[in-house]
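Today's session is about reading a structure prediction critically. Students often jump straight to the picture, but the first step is always the sequence itself: look for stretches that repeat, for charged clusters, for runs of hydrophobic residues. Only then move on to the predicted structure, which in these notes is written as discrete structure tokens rather than atom positions. Here is the chain we will use throughout the hour.
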Amino acid sequence: MLGKEGRLFVLGYALAAIYEGPAANLRHNLNEVVASLGCTVELQINNTRAAWRVSTAPLRAVFKGLLGSKVSLKAETQNLSKAFEDLDAQVNSEMGYSPEDAESPERTARGVGTHRAPPSGRHLSTQKMYELKTRLRCSYVVDRAMLSCRHWFDRKHERCMERVRVPLLNHLLCLPMKFKFFCSIARAMEVWCRSRIPVEGNFGQTYDSLNQSVRDLDGEFSATIDLKEEKQVAVLGLNTSWEHVSAELRDLVRRQEAQLGWTLGLLRVLLSCTFLLVLHASFSYVDSYNGDIRFDNVYISTYFCQIDERRKKLGKRTLLPLRRAEDRTVIFPCSPFVQASETRDVVRELAETLPVLLLLLVLCGLDRALYSVFNTVRHHSFLQYSFRSSHKLEVKVGGDSMLARLLRKTIGALNTSSETTVDSSNMRCLPQPVSLNPRAYVRAVLPVGLLLCLCLLQAFGYRLRRVIAAFYFPKREKKRVLFLYNDLLRKRAAFTKLRRAAIVSRAQRQRAPRHHLADVLHRRCPLLRRWLRRRCVVCQAPETPEAYVCPTPDCAAVYCRSCWDDMRRRCPACTPREELSSSAYSDSNDDATYAE
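Below is the predicted structure for this chain, in token form.
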């Protein structure tokens, strides 16, 4: 429970605390930002729509007024059409002249035919046609006057002949009644008809425009307002509204939350079964303890010390105190410190816990940074929208004629006035970030801190495994301790042969004369003696007053007292290999008996 399996159980609580603390708060703040962005865009769209409606309200009111006065406008246009019928009949009338007389050869010979009606294949404008008709009417009046004059002379001649019955005298007296040539004086009026015809120059254009207007007024009066909305595609191939994008984003966040919740639920279920791993690890340790004598056999127990003490009384070689190189491979169970062989496992477990710690620090830092940013945005992004619109248009149409009345009913509809004020703000769209309270931080940090403490306590907890197993299997424990003691004896006996090259190399480095300054500093500066002292060529322990210096000339190798005893009081640096090997062989025969 104090080892790797127990940490799995604590790891579940740590992940759950991280998820429920900074991770959940981070997700909540991000959701607030997403909702704030959607609300802001929707608010802008609503404000734009309201401004457009307010701006177009006067125009829509004008068109509604025109549509409301449809019946009265139609009655006025009918009256105008009836009034225009007389003018139209007068312009299109053929009264006042005779087209047959105008096209006769006799009138053509007299010069009147220059103003006759045009042939059927030729089209003239209204202005030219009306001028031609006016000239023909003028010529027609002159011709009728001359004809009437001749008839008057004829009647007067007949009456004169009836009154004077004397032959020859009546012809003489009635001769002036034969002077019909005086009637030709009226032909001088034709010159006036050709040069001073009373028709304005823009009569035809005005008539055509008025005629077209009257015809248009005769049609059905209607008005409709068509609004066409064009949506621009923000991304090629994507034609979706912001509401759709916002809804999809919220759905994605909800799906991810659901998946994360499901994953955490599954993780909790799996972590709730960690007691099975604890049982499995316990049974595995017991099996390995009884099956492999080398498994976890590195403890210097009380029985180990008793064996060494008994051998010391018998005068045999002992192991305690252990050499510096041997301390790195064994564990003293009662030591309050983490020892060298345990440090590697502790560092590895701390490295495995480091990702959880980094995850906690990153999430807490990110949550705090995002909260600061969102809180700053909330306090400095408040906007007040104020839209004011005023409209006043007045059109005055004077007069009492039919056209004036018509204009008052059409253009007069533009007489509108309005004043609108729209005030809004983005207060409801600002993000509402939430900050974690200190209690939430403590709840998230405590499991991770406990996880780190378990990593440090694992070394001490694993020492208890051997103690518990030894309590239930005491005979097996004695065998394991004897095996460890004998194994260390064999290794120490073979140490000289295995490490002779390294010992010789160190002795050669010590053989080199030391600088005079180093000797002076060694004598005068006690604080520097720790670094200036020579070291044992076997175990690299600092030189002490009890240290042994090889008396062989040009050797001067330094040995601590225990290492000198282990070397059988022979210096491997200056002793020949054959002599050292034979000595080691005889010594090994003397110590062939191991602990029992």
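Discussion point for the tutorial: The two ends are 36 Å apart (CA to CA).
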